[in-house]
Inverse folding.
């Protein structure tokens, strides 16, 4: 979502300055690639790039293709074979052992529900959604492009009727939470990238000490929405946490007021005030939040559980599974910056459904498989 947010911002600025733009989208990958289907990059007519479709190796040639799309006001599909170092077509020695298909779409500001308008719907609500992009590997074919936005219990927005035939598939992707690429019809050359997009992480931190500052800076780089709550007026200030979305002075018993909890909302308790953290934990146990991280040693958590037991609150196994204490991955962290890195690493692994092991020991591909249906 961060990449899309930056693209939307860049597009708004370009439009206000009267600049024409094109959107580059990775729609299909065969073999290995630095970026996967759904990666995007906005290109302005004066060559400004926002987002990324590779690790930097394709951007130079992609810029030229995007400018051609802008000048001709046409969508174009370009295929890069990164497995062939002698490929004369692109003249790049990439060696990534994959074939990357990238769709370049001219953004027509006058077109209702153009690709940018469809992507902008992702910002309207904190809910998961599906974006459908139709393309053809036949470069001479009409490239339909980003065509449909689907979200449960919301109007379906589209600019091409072909995409409406994929509503069933969109619902399936929303259910499985897995992006797929499939043929539209048996005798058709058109394919569709049916992309699952979830809202950004909402990180709610109890605590506004100095060790929270590097954590907020790191999560801001990831595009997470950070809320900070603390009972100390001198600590919980926007000046100390300029990258946070919201900073509030709040009593522990009122901590969850005005906090909306969804599947992408995670909590971290690091006030260094035992009673404050305990009071917030008590509130969180009554919610369905998926992640509660507590800074400090295991003895702190055991003490908290004992104190809750004395209050007649028995923490069950399901609730214990949601508590992560000590918080963070074991990377030998000592300084506040290192501890922040440890916490962010665990949060990202949890959010992605991973366990945070070294890729050195992973069998198979680095990225999750995209489902391709012939």
């Amino acid at each position: 979502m961060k990449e899309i947010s930056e693209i939307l911002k860049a597009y708004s600025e370009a439009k206000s300055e009267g600049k024409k733009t094109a959107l580059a989208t990775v729609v299909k990958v065969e073999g290995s690639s630095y970026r996967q289907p759904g990666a995007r990059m906005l290109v302005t007519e004066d060559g400004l790039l926002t987002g990324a479709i590779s690790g930097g190796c394709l951007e130079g040639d992609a810029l030229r293709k995007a400018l051609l799309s802008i000048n001709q006001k046409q969508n174009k599909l370009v295929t890069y074979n990164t497995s062939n170092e002698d490929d004369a077509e692109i003249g790049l020695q990439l060696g990534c052992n994959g074939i990357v298909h990238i769709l370049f779409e001219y953004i027509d500001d006058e077109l209702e529900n153009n690709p940018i308008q469809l992507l902008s719907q992702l910002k309207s609500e904190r809910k998961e959604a599906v974006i459908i992009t139709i393309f053809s590997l036949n470069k001479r074919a009409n490239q339909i492009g980003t065509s449909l936005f689907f979200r449960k219990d919301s109007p379906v927005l589209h600019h091409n009727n072909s995409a409406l035939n994929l509503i069933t598939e969109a619902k399936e992707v929303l259910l499985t939470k897995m992006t797929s690429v499939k043929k539209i019809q048996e005798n058709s050359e058109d394919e569709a990238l049916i992309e699952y997009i979830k809202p950004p992480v909402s990180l709610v931190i109890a605590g506004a000490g100095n060790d929270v500052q590097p954590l907020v800076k790191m999560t801001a780089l990831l595009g997470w929405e950070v809320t900070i709550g603390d009972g100390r007026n001198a600590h919980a200030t926007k000046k100390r946490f300029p990258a946070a979305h919201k900073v509030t002075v709040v009593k522990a018993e009122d901590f969850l007021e005005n906090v909306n909890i969804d599947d992408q909302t995670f909590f971290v308790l690091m006030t260094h005030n035992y009673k404050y953290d305990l009071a917030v934990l008590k509130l969180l146990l009554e919610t369905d939040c998926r992640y509660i991280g507590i800074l400090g040693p295991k003895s702190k958590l055991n003490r908290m559980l004992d104190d809750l037991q004395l209050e007649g609150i028995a923490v069950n196994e399901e609730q214990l599974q949601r508590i992560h204490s000590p918080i963070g991955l074991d990377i030998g962290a000592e300084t506040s910056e290192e501890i922040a890195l440890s916490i962010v690493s665990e949060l990202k692994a949890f959010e992605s459904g991973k366990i945070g092991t070294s890729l050195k020991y992973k069998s198979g591909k680095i990225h999750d498989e995209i489902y391709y249906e012939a």
About this structure: The radius of gyration is 23 Å. The first helix runs from residue 2 to 16. The chain has a mean pLDDT of 90. The first strand starts at residue 21 and ends at 31.
